[in-house]
Amino acid sequence: MKVQFTETVLRDANQSLAATRLSYDEFAPILQTMDQAGYYSVECWGGATFDVCLRYLNEDPWERLRKIRENMPNTKLQMLLRGQNLLGYHHYPDDVVRRFVELSIKNGIDIIRIFDALNDVRNIETAVDEAVKWNAHASGAIAYTTSPVHTHTKYLELVRDMQKMGVQSVCIKDMAGIMGPQEAYDLVSRIKDATDLPVVLHSHSTTGLAFMTYLKAVEAGADVIDTAISPFSGGTSQPATETMAYAFRQMGYQVDLNDGKLLQMADFFKPICDQMIEDGTLMAKSLRTDTQCLSYQIPGGMLSNLMSQLKQMNALDRLDEVLEETPKVRADMGYPPLVTPTSQMIGVQAVTNVLQGEPYKKVSKEIQAYCRGEYGRTPAPIDPVIKEKILGDLPEVEGRFADSLEPQFEDAKRKLAGLAECDEDVLSWIAFPQLAEAFLKKRKEAEEKRSAYTIEQID
User: Fold this and answer.
1) Hey, which bits of 151-215 come out as E strands?
2) CA 31, 35, 36: angle at the middle one, nearest 5?
3) DSSP 3-state assignment of 139?
4) Which of 37, 161, 189, 309 sits most deeply, having the most CB atoms within 10 A of its CB?
5) Cα dihedral sign for 184, 228, 310, 390?
């Protein structure tokens, strides 16, 4: 039997450990080596990469993708898409979702892993349909969590719904690393018995379970596992690629990875990781095994961002209080899986509750929208008393929220005439208006300066 690997160092591994601060220039020299390593796919885009490129790295995320594609012609490139949220934090109309998926594929993406934070399948249908239309691999993802209302039977219903939509594989997305070995064996077995879809398992090493969980998942028939090259593995990231390859070969599985290329990759990323630890970008807490996560269920990217936010507010010493508050807020909100964007909303509310000293004294507009139903059906009802306190007289959403949204792309394109150079720029602006507009203006100014300098040189 063969087990295949998706490498996460370019996206989720550095998002989970270092708040996605790994720039293109830092990893560009190793791309051609990665392209020869024998991966099933390399996850390199989506998630928080888009936001961070514009907000902190002064990079065009689309250009980053094109350059990765150019340097990795032989490997499938993979991205993470938040369904109707795309790469932002609220729902977008269908015309924007379809254009975004189309251009992601045309700019180099082969596999789109599509999930909804609440596992509301209505919110992934448009993205799946468009991915299939453009001959990309649509991988439907379960946002895995545990709660009184989350059962394997419910997850199996979700898989069947996604299969009807046309997904070509299903991913169990264990964001917080809370899936145990037996749970993995049982769920993968049920999915394999019920469907002919390839099964991918994505987990994190946060609780220390992931290595064992991967072994049992593959024994049950999982086809692909997500791993990270060793310097960016462990802690809130994924298990180490090299370790898992070694273990599965010893167990008699076929592993097509090139060990020599993996060694070159590890040697390349070691000093980058060391520098991030030295300058504080990668905090030591992110590398620890934290069994408390089995209770508070905070995924890697969320934990690193929480610590970063508290550090900026000089309140890092209150992290334990925030971790204790998080599952309380999650229960109040109907047990949403903690994955972007719900993880950010729940995390921010937990921080606010702790720092304000009174639960829900202050709430974000995102939490209000969540309680209205803009993000979809919650797994369990929201606490009615808290819901009333948050909403007041605000009306609740009926049906699928995206159906109430007017088309946006063409209007945005007209508004950005003279600033946006392509449809990709328009999509960047729709996703993150302020960030993208500042980036586009800065780019235009730089181009005008270069043009003026060239004319001066000619004269």
Assistant:
1) 169-173, 199-202
2) 125
3) strand
4) 37
5) negative
Cβ pair 104, 79 in contact under 8 A: yes
Which SS3 state, helix, strand or coil, does residue 326 take?
helix
Q: Which two tokens stand for residue 164?
A: 């009807």
Tens of pLDDT, residue by residue over 410-445, are 999 999 999 999 999 999 999 999 999 999 999 999
Taking CA 157 as the corner, what is the angle to CA 155 and CA 160, rounded to the nearest 5 degrees? 115
Residue 326 has which token pair? 């998080």
Residue 395 CB: number of other CB atoms within 10 A? 8
Q: CA 75: distance to chain centroid?
A: 20
CB 12 within 8 A of CB 237: yes
Q: 22: helix, coil or strand?
A: coil
CA neighbours closer than 13 Å in the CB half-sphere of residue 69: 17
pLDDT of 454 over the 70 cut: no
Q: In the numeric block, which tokens belong to residue 113?
A: 């892993």
Checking if the pLDDT of 455 tops 60, the result is no
* Structure-token match 């072994």, residue found: 215
Segment 196-232, tens digit of pLDDT: 999 999 999 999 999 999 999 999 999 999 999 999 9
Tokens 């063969």, located at residue: 2
Distance CA 149, CA 128 (A): 26
